């Protein structure tokens, strides 16, 4: 099973990826981890390609990185698109930043990543506020381009998220001969 998780900053992509991975034993790749270490779109693309070549059968990739979307989207069995309000996204990003400052880190964030409450952070908040509108257009165009609407589940709330997790879990079964989960 190959799953791409896309959505706005603060929508919960990494958390959802971890939940699905833990429940089904599917390897997960968080593109933000590479970005936050390198600040390089090329490094994100190369790392994504490497992850895909190492995990031919099943994988989960979370992230919107447009420079690598054509690597992952055509192969996806499921596209989970998290869409939340800009206000909720902004709130989550601010809370996440405060928690980081207090020492509570998410597992997909590099240890050496530090966030400063500075002009760059304010620019990021501005990006978060405006990204839902941009993402609906650009991500929608990519889903059209790769004809993935039939495999795309739009998630707007907890109920949608829980249903997506159930759908994926029931679409997945344990193949005793291969000793792994299969679609």
Secondary structure topology:
Layout: E1 2-7, H1 13-24, E2 28-30, H2 31-38, H3 41-54, E3 59-62, H4 69-72, E4 78-82, H5 86-101, H6 119-145, E5 152-155, H7 158-171, E6 173-175, E7 180-182
Parallel strand pairs: 1-3, 1-4, 2-3, 4-5
Antiparallel strand pairs: 6-7
Helix pairs in contact: 1-7, 2-3, 5-6
Structural account:
The protein is α/β, with parallel strands linked by helices and 183 residues long. The chain is 52% helix and 15% strand. It is built from 7 helices and 7 strands; from the N terminus they run βαβααβαβααβαββ. The protein has a 5-stranded parallel β-sheet, with helices on both faces. α2 (31-38) runs antiparallel to α3 (41-54) and α5 (86-101) crosses α6. The longest helix is centred in the C-terminal third of the chain and has 27 residues, at 119-145. The relative contact order is 0.20.
Strand elements, count: 7
The percent range for helix content is 40-55%
Helix/strand-derived category reads: alpha/beta
Shape: globular
Poorly predicted runs of 5 or more residues: none
Gap from first CA to last CA: 5 Å
- Looking across the biggest beta sheet, what order are the strands in? 2-3-1-4-5
In short:
With 183 residues, this protein is of the alpha/beta class. It is built from seven helices and seven strands; from the N terminus they run βαβααβαβααβαββ.
Name the descriptors.
52% helix; 7 helices; five-stranded parallel beta sheet; two-stranded antiparallel sheet; alpha/beta; 15% strand; 183 residues; single chain; 7 strands
């Amino acid at each position: 099973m190959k799953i791409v998780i896309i959505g706005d900053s603060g929508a919960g992509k990494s958390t959802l990826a971890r939940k699905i991975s833990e429940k089904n034993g599917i390897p997960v790749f968080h593109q933000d981890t590479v970005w936050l270490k390198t600040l390089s779109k090329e490094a994100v693309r190369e790392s994504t390609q490497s992850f895909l070549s190492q995990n031919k059968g099943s994988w989960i990739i979370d992230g919107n990185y447009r420079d690598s979307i054509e690597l992952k989207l055509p192969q996806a069995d499921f596209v989970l698109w998290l869409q939340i309000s800009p206000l909720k996204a902004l709130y989550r990003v601010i809370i996440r930043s405060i928690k980081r400052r207090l020492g509570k880190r998410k597992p997909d964030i590099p240890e050496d990543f530090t966030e400063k409450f500075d002009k760059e952070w304010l620019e990021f908040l501005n990006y978060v506020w405006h990204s839902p509108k941009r993402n609906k257009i650009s991500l929608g165009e990519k889903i059209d381009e790769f004809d993935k609407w039939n495999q795309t589940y739009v998630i707007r709330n907890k109920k949608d998220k829980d249903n997506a997790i159930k759908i994926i879990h029931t679409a997945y079964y344990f193949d005793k001969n291969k000793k792994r989960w299969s679609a």
